What we know:
Elements: E1 2-3, H1 5-8, E2 19-23, H2 28-40, E3 44-48, H3 50-56, H4 58-71, E4 76-83, H5 86-95, E5 99-102, H6 109-126, E6 129-134, H7 152-162, E7 166-169, H8 186-195, E8 200-202, H9 210-216, E9 221-226, H10 228-244, H11 251-272
Parallel strand pairs: 1-4, 2-3, 2-9, 3-4, 4-5, 5-6, 6-7, 7-8, 8-9
Helix pairs in contact: 2-11, 4-5, 5-6, 6-7, 7-8, 10-11
Amino acid sequence: xxxxxxxxxxxxxxxxxxxxxxxxxxxxxxxxxxxxxxxxxxxxxxxxxxxxxxxxxxxxxxxxxxxxxxxxxxxxxxxxxxxxxxxxxxxxxxxxxxxxxxxxxxxxxxxxxxxxxxxxxxxxxxxxxxxxxxxxxxxxxxxxxxxxxxxxxxxxxxxxxxxxxxxxxxxxxxxxxxxxxxxxxxxxxxxxxxxxxxxxxxxxxxxxxxxxxxxxxxxxxxxxxxxxxxxxxxxxxxxxxxxxxxxxxxxxxxxxxxxxxxxxxxxxxxxxxxx
Length: 275
């Protein structure tokens, strides 16, 4: 079932669970994520970055991943992740994505509000949902992307003024971490949820220890982004296959192991998130 974030996330504000949002790199990832969701009886958010969407084509993602979502027995959201300009968002909406994120975290507050509100109004015409970000979750090794914890009062004002359906907040995680050594500032997270009425989103969650993924279920965190863990699992599996079978050139045979390794990571994360 193809769903929007607005249809899926509010159910988990007060539930002992959160929905996993997993970043795709290629079309085969779609099958892996949907199968894992069906096996775990869990909803799933298929996240596609603008770079990946451009590489494969927004229309093709909309046609292939969108149709697979519609045919699934699980609730599946097709989501554009971290667009910091509106042009990719317009392409995603035209292609049938059910959800988009405008990331204005590097902009002044007023500009972030203004553009997010513009995106919300356009998305409404498509029946799509909108995620936004206030504060800023840094990227490991990228000094150009600021690291700024979310201010609870500012978050509340932003959510109200922008009209976003869910809000990504910065409370201690970092994108692209390969070690599970990040720490959520739970006092800050609690202050934010006391001020903000919409579902909260945590980015960079590969870096969180398993125990913290479980603990977040007790807060108003409804969407948990995980990307690097999938890429690492796929990479290790593929390298192992190539080492064991250096003369094999059949792609399907070579991809079975890394895709299965990726799937097991997804299943484990879904279990930790309450499914």
